[in-house]
Amino acid sequence: MKSIVLNIPNSGDFNTFDLSVYLAAKMYEDGFLSSGQAADMIGLTKRAFIEIIGKYGVSVFSRNVEDLKNDFIHA
């Protein structure tokens, strides 16, 4: 797994978990990560990730057809 450093302004009410989930959720939404990869990225189970991403404005239903197929196969 790669690590990156982000410089976040002190103004604003940011916490590490929310930023991590937001980034993973958006990467999932844009097709850069599968739901399983996004969940691993932030240390959640796939189920927990799927349950929480709506809070960040991301649909559970991926635009990535292969990811949807895998979700049905492993359900």
What would you say this structure looks like, in words?
The chain has 75 residues and is mainly α. The chain has a domain of 52 residues. The chain has 4 helices and no strands. The longest helix has 14 residues. It is elongated and about 45 Å long.
Oligomer: single chain
Mean pLDDT: 83
Order of helices and strands: HHHH
Helix content: 40-55%
Q: Classify the beta-strand content into a percent band.
A: under 5%
Tally of DSSP helical segments: 4
In short:
The protein has helices at 16-29, 35-42, 46-52, 65-73. Helix 1 (16-29) packs antiparallel against helix 2 and helix 2 (35-42) crosses helix 3. The mean pLDDT is 83.
Task: Based on the model shown, name its key terms.
single chain, 51% helix
